[in-house]
Specification:
- A 5-stranded parallel β-sheet has the order 2-1-3-4-5, sandwiched between helices.
- The chain contains 8 helices and 5 strands; from the N terminus they run E-H-E-H-H-E-H-H-E-H-H-E-H.
- Helix 4 packs across helix 7.
- By secondary structure, it is α/β, with parallel strands linked by helices.
- The chain has one domain: Rossmann fold, CATH 3.40.50.
- It comes from Streptomyces roseus.
- This is Flavoprotein.
């Protein structure tokens, strides 16, 4: 299938990031041209795969802002998926703290009117923190589709390194039909 839409896939450092190559392939099979952006820690976690991920997407994998005057190496996004989105990334995003590339791109997408989907990945203890619900409410009020709880990611107990199942298909399904005009 020839890609007709551009997806910015942004990932935080949570265990589901190790499945990102399969997620990219699934998105590509759905007609998405995928550009992969990572938080700095996520980039560190998958450092040995960065060249392969760039080859898979056909675009540079980004985790840092470009320098002033440098050209943008990604086409404009038709939709954005931020998953897995950690407790830290979600709270920073909701508060507008854009010192990290992935969070900055997600924050800007809201202002551009780009359809945005996010799926948190956190344990139940962090999800119980009062700021977490406030951040999810802020993002929802801004038009972000937040896949948390039934139909999305359900937080598990503290301790396991990896959630038993991260519902990547639900995140990609939420993007079906998403498209946005390219704004200057």
């Amino acid at each position: 299938m020839t890609p007709t839409r551009t997806l910015y896939l942004l990932c935080s450092a949570a265990p589901p990031v190790f499945d990102v190559a399969h997620v990219i392939e699934d998105a590509q099979s759905r007609g998405w041209d995928v550009c992969l952006g990572l938080t700095p820690t996520a980039a560190h976690w998958v450092a040995g795969s960065l060249d392969g991920l760039a080859a898979l997407t056909g675009h540079p994998v980004r985790w840092q802002y470009k320098l002033p005057g440098e050209p943008d190496v990604w086409p404009p996004a038709d939709a954005l998926l931020f998953a897995p989105a950690t407790f830290n990334s979600l709270n920073a995003w909701a508060l507008g703290l854009t010192d990290r590339f992935a969070v900055g791109v997600a924050a800007e997408a809201i202002g551009k009117g780009t359809p945005v989907v996010t799926m948190p990945c956190t344990n139940a203890a962090l999800a119980a923190h009062p700021q977490f619900d406030q951040s999810l409410a802020t993002l929802r009020a801004a038009g972000v589709s937040v896949l948390h709880g039934e139909g999305g990611f359900v937080p598990g107990p503290v301790g396991p390194d990896s959630p038993p199942h991260f519902p990547w298909p639900a995140a990609l399904n939420a993007l079906d039909g998403a498209s946005a005009p390219h704004l200057p």
